[in-house]
Design brief:
CATH topology: Alpha-Beta Plaits
Strand content: 15-25%
Shape: elongated
Number of strands: 9
CATH class: Alpha Beta
Structural class: alpha+beta
Number of domains: 1
CATH architecture: 2-Layer Sandwich
Radius of gyration: 20 Å
Helix content: 25-40%
Largest sheet: 9 strands, antiparallel
Distance between the termini: 29 Å
Length: 271
């Protein structure tokens, strides 16, 4: 429902959006599958291909715009997640064009792609607390060991409900989330930009915490208005070189866990 419809609170919401509109980041989730034929390459050729692509990904990460995750063994349709944030859509295009030009490029298939944008939630009202997720216009991951990502659609009837009723249900929704402080949510909006309405990404260090959170959210009032929230992806945070080595069958480096946990979370610089 339009913000200029005379509903309570619309003036505050509009003012917030206008003040922050220019600062909104574009967010892109790119799930990549490596052609199995590349696994038949000699080990030195796979190593070289991994190094070339790693250099490009690391260059983006060093500028504060990219994180990589492995999905090897967790889904059959993709091997790698590239999570990007940028100030402009064309920055996302340029990055993918560079990857396509690598030796591995012709053997990379984008299995799933979700484009979205950061913006304030319309349901927070005047309530504030430090680093409040729903008020951010720039992506700010915390660097959790695991990332759970899915696109989401609301039923159209949700948008026809009075704003105050929707807000009350979302307050309940937020309260449930606050009971799981070890799980951090990153919500991005896709209305008009991509097929889905939202892309949500949850960071945590223990999958059981996320499982329990999702089960409890199913019991919330807002849950009845969810149209769809699949496919869902379980991803493991990993440096690009380690993620590519896993995907290319080059084994797990002995230091992979220590290296990825010690690696700075570059996107924090954009918060």
């Amino acid at each position: 429902m339009d913000f200029l419809d005379g509903q309570p609170g619309h003036v505050d919401r509009l003012a917030t959006l206008l003040a922050m509109a220019d600062a909104r980041q574009v967010v892109k989730y790119t799930f990549v599958k490596i052609d199995p034929q590349a696994l038949a390459w000699p080990a030195d050729a796979r190593q070289a291909a991994a190094r070339e692509l790693t250099e490009l990904l690391d260059a983006r990460a060093d500028s504060g715009t990219l994180l990589t995750y492995s999905t090897v063994g967790l889904r059959g349709d993709c091997d790698l997640l590239i999570w990007q944030a940028a100030d402009r859509v064309d920055e996302i295009q340029r990055a993918e064009s560079q990857w396509r030009g690598t030796q591995l490029g012709p053997h990379l298939t984008v299995a799933h792609s979700f484009l979205a944008m950061m913006r304030p939630s319309p349901y927070l009202g005047r309530h504030k607390h430090p680093d409040q997720e729903g008020r951010r216009t720039r992506l700010k991951p915390v660097g959790g060991r695991y990332l759970f990502v899915y696109p989401m659609w609301k039923k159209r009837v949700w948008y026809r409900l009075p704003y105050e009723r929707r807000k009350a249900m979302m307050v309940e929704h937020f309260a449930i989330g606050h009971r799981y402080p070890q799980v951090k949510i990153n919500t991005a909006y896709s209305f008009g930009l991509d097929d889905q309405e939202f892309v949500v990404a949850f960071e945590c260090d223990e999958p059981a915490a996320f499982l329990d959170l999702v089960m409890e959210l199913r019991e919330s009032q807002a849950s009845r208005y969810t149209e769809r929230e699949t496919p869902i992806f379980t991803c493991v945070r990993m440096a690009a070189d380690d993620a590519l080595k896993l995907a290319l069958g080059l084994g797990t480096p002995a230091s992979v866990e220590e290296r990825e946990l010690a690696r700075p979370v570059s996107l924090l610089a954009g918060g």
